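Possible regression after last week's pipeline update?

I re-ran a chain I had predicted before the update to compare outputs. Posting the input and the new output here so someone can diff against the archived version. Not blocking, just want to make sure nothing changed silently.
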Amino acid sequence: MRPVRYGLLTCLAALTLAPPPPPGYSAQTAPAGSKYFVYIGTYTGPKSKGIYAYRYDAAAFKLDAIGLVGEMVRPSFLTLHPNQQFLYAVSELGNDGRENGSITAFRIDRNSGALTALNTVSSGGGGACHLVVDKTGKSLLVANYGTGSVAAFAVNPDGRLSGPTTLMQHSGASVDRRRQGGPHAHAVVLSADNRFVFVPDLGLDRIFSYRLDPATAHLTPNDPPFVAVKPGSGPRHFAFSPGGRFAYSVHEMGSMVTAFAYEAVAGKLSQLQTISTLPADFHGEDNSAEIEVDAKGRFLYASNRGHDSITVFAIEPKQGTLTVVENVATQGRTPRNFKIDPSGRYLFAANQDSNNIVIFRIDPETGRLTPTGQVLQVQSPVCVQFVPSPAR
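New output (post-update):
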C-alpha cells in the first residue's frame, strides 16, 4: 500500500462550504485550539477507495475536505493509538466465515492528515468489525463478527502489529436460527481501568468479559465469563458512563438498550433496565447500531437503521437508568455509526445508504439534537474518528 500525500489526494467528496453557525452557537464557549482531522471509514466500491478525511475547526465550526488518505478494502471501523500517532483500521472481509478479515496500521502525518501504511495482519477470524488499542498502547483487540472470535495483538513501539497473541473463540447459538446460528462478536470495549474487555456477541445474546494483560496482549476469561441478555435481542455495541459506574449495550435485533450497574473490582455487570430505542407507533424493520454516552454522563445516544433515527436518552445520575428524550431523524438512510465530536457540541451521523454525514448540534442542557445544515457528501460512510491536529 503506497503512502498518500496531502495535496495530491483524490477526493471523493466536493469541498463543503461551512454554513453559518447554528442557533445558540457562541465562539466564546467553543474550546480554544480545537482543530482535528476527521477520518471516515467506508464500505468500498466503484466510488469509494478506503479512508477519507476532513480538516475540522470546532471553534469556527468549519470543515474542509482533504480526500482519500488511506486506500484499503472495507475499512468499516477505525481506532486511534493513545499517542495519537497511529491509526488502525479493520478490513471487514469474511462475514460468511470463508476468509479472514485484516487489520492495517497507519502512521498519521500530523500536519497533512495523510496516512502511511505500516503493516497489515490477519485479524485471526472472518468479518473483522471493531477494534481498540488499550490505554498503554501495547495491545490491540479486534472482534471478528463472521467467525465469532476475539483476537489480541501486540503493538510495537513503531506502531506495527505482531500476533495474534491470543485468540478467544466463542461457540453456541441462540433463538433466531437465521441470524443467531453461531457466534457473532461485534465489539471490543475497555473498562476505564484497562483491566477488562467487554465483547457483545450478537449471535449468542451474551456480553463476554475478559481480563487483559496489556504488557503481553493476553486475554483470559473473567469470572463470570459473560452476562446473558434477552434472547433474540442481538447485543451489538457497548459503552461505559464516564465515571464507570454504569454500562450500556445497544441490541441490534431487538432495537433496545440495556443498562447495567458495573462493579469495577470484579469487572461484573448487573442488569438494571432494558428500554426500546423506537417510538411506540413504529412497526417496520429496524436494526439498531451505535451507542455513545456524552462526556458528562448525562445523555446516551443510540442509532436506528430502518427507523433511520438517533434516540436520545437522559441518564438518571444515581441509578444509571434511562428515559427517552426524543427520536431524531438522521436525514439519511441507515445510520450505522455516529460520533460526538471532542468539543461535545456536535454529533456527526454517518448515513451509510444515503452517502452523507449529517451534523447535529447538541443542546448541553437537554441533550436534544438540532440539524446544523452542514452535510458531508461521502460514499458509504460507516465510521467517524476524530484525531487532534496542530493548529494552522
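Follow-up from reviewer: compared with the archived run. The chain is about 0% helix and 50% strand. Marking as no regression found.
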